[in-house]
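Long-time lurker, first post. I've been practising inverse folding by hand and with some scripts of my own, and I keep getting stuck on stretches where the structure tokens seem ambiguous. Below is the full token string for one chain I'm working on. Before anyone asks, I'm not after the true native sequence, just a reasonable design that respects the backbone. If someone could post their per-position residues I'd love to compare against what I wrote down in my notebook.
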């Protein structure tokens, strides 16, 4: 079977500025990047993986050691076609997906290793114990993948494969991006997107400091043996092209497709609590002193609700994604340097897997959302704090809604405890009975909180755009009014549904009245910077 060169074959899915889909080769994706809107793939995992591979090529073919060199590339407005041609003359053979002795991003066939249907490569497809996240027409046991798609999923698997299960040379461990959300800065073209994320090597020193041994995996002459305690990251190129699995394709020569594959553990990152990824937000555990761990997406929380955390500067307990810190530094440089001409706004694309909390062996779902961000917000710390304040108020209202929903269920289940349910709304300490343990779950089923947050997404995105141009007081006042309206509306839907199913009017009315009165107190207390807890009569 003839080879399949990722250097010359059109396999990278892109979208033109006019919106048309295309497939291009690796060098084309870069040389034509200023004429392309971006990567266009149904899988966000593939999108992230392709960005990272292209970033590795950019670092290898363009001088990006310093901010000055980065600025030179930005002003050029396109990538250097000659540099890519020269690089291809030397390394193109290493990009052959079906090379007989060194297939790209793979190992040679292992006679003692299990052969899986190719669907095992697709983290989004139904495979083993994982639920189907979305359907590409691939189910285990019956799938084939054209070579171009197999290449895309190979890249994604190396970055997102979850831990769990016996393997050689040791148990499977998480790939670099399996755990934690990943932030990418999205520009107006693929060129802008890639360059905005291609931080100068000097910006990597806190994460994966460059070394003389740093190179992309396809340039390795003698790959090192995997180490169970973790393989040391040698620099940005080594990390961006990390090989978490030993994969080998079994291809069908007639259909030019992959039908089966072998997958085994390869390299794992050291479990030392260090920060290494420029797109991740990290947190610390104050109690256990375990170092940094990635901030994760949650099943019941939309991505935009993480915005205030992502924009917060790094401190002792939280590390901002380095790519956002770099973006803020660029804004500061633009003020001092003529001709940089950054866009006035970008989108922060936040992607990630949601897995089981402990072992990360089961993938529940993936998410990718874009958050429009006017770069002026990064100029002033008080603007970032205003974003944080927006979410702080919203969370306090959510807590009040949660208690009110619980009070509704409690009062309707045990009519003689209506007064205790009202005390629960007011957070009084003099309740004469404990709330039944089944109440919180039943309250969640009312859907009040889901409706509330769904109604607030649009106003939040609008508030982000207003903050740099409108007085903070006006934005905060409008936000509080919208919160009040959305909270009342979310509760009203639940109340009407309960009343329609025969619930008595009196407890519903008294609880709604208590909700309204305390909601105003919650908002007033936050505005005045006070604790809204009290034991006073309503």
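-- Answer (accepted) --
I ran through it position by position. Result:
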């Amino acid at each position: 079977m003839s080879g399949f060169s990722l250097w010359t074959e059109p396999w990278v899915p892109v979208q033109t500025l006019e919106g048309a889909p295309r497939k291009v080769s690796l060098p084309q994706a870069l040389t034509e990047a200023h004429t392309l809107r971006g990567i266009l793939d149904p899988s966000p995992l593939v999108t992230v993986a392709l960005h990272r591979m292209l970033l590795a090529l950019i670092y290898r073919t363009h001088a990006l050691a310093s901010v000055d060199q980065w600025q030179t590339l930005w002003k050029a407005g396109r990538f250097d076609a000659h540099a890519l041609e020269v690089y291809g003359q030397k390394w193109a053979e290493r990009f052959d997906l079906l090379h007989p002795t060194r297939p790209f991003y793979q190992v040679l066939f292992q006679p003692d290793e299990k052969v899986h249907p190719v669907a095992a490569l697709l983290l989004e497809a139904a495979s083993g114990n994982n639920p189907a996240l979305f359907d590409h027409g691939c189910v285990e046991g019956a799938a084939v993948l054209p070579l171009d798609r197999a290449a895309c999923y190979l890249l994604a698997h190396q970055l997102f494969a979850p831990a769990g299960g016996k393997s050689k040379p040791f148990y499977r461990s998480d790939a670099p991006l399996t755990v934690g959300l990943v932030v990418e800065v999205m520009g107006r073209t693929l060129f802008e997107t890639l360059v905005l994320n291609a931080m100068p090597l000097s910006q990597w020193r806190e994460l994966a400091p460059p070394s003389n041994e740093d190179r992309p995996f396809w340039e390795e002459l003698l790959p090192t043996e995997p180490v169970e305690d973790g393989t040391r990251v040698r620099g940005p190129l080594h990390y961006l092209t990390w090989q978490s699995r030993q994969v080998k394709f079994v291809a069908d020569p007639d259909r030019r497709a992959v039908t089966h594959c072998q997958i085994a553990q390869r390299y794992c990152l050291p479990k030392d609590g260090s920060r290494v990824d420029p797109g991740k937000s990290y947190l610390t555990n104050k109690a256990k002193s375990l170092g940094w761990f990635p901030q994760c997406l949650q099943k019941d929380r939309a991505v935009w609700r993480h915005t205030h955390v992502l924009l917060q500067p790094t401190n002792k307990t939280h590390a901002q994604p380095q790519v956002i810190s770099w973006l803020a530094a660029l804004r500061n440089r633009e003020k001092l340097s003529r001709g940089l001409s950054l866009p006035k706004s970008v989108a922060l694309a936040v992607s990630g897997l949601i897995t089981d909390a402990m072992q990360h062996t089961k993938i529940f779902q993936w998410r990718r959302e874009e958050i429009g961000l006017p770069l002026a917000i990064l100029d002033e710390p008080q603007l970032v704090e205003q974003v944080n304040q927006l979410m702080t108020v919203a969370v306090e209202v959510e807590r009040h809604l949660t208690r009110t929903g619980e009070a509704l269920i409690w009062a309707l289940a045990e009519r003689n405890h209506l007064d205790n349910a009202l005390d629960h709304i007011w957070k009084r300490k003099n309740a004469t009975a404990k709330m039944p343990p089944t109440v919180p779950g039943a309250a969640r089923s009312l859907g009040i909180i889901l409706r509330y947050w769904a109604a607030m997404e649009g106003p939040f995105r609008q508030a982000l755009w207003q903050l740099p141009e409108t007085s903070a007081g006006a934005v905060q006042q409008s936000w509080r009014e919208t919160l009040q309206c959305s909270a009342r509306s979310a509760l009203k839907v639940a109340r009407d549904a309960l009343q329609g199913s025969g619930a008595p009017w009196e407890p519903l009315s008294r609880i709604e009245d208590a909700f309204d009165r305390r909601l105003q107190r919650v908002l007033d207390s936050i505005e005045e910077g006070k604790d809204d807890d009290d034991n006073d009569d309503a």
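A couple of notes from the structure itself: The mean pLDDT is 90. Residues 12-270+298-379 form one domain. Happy to go over any region you disagree with.
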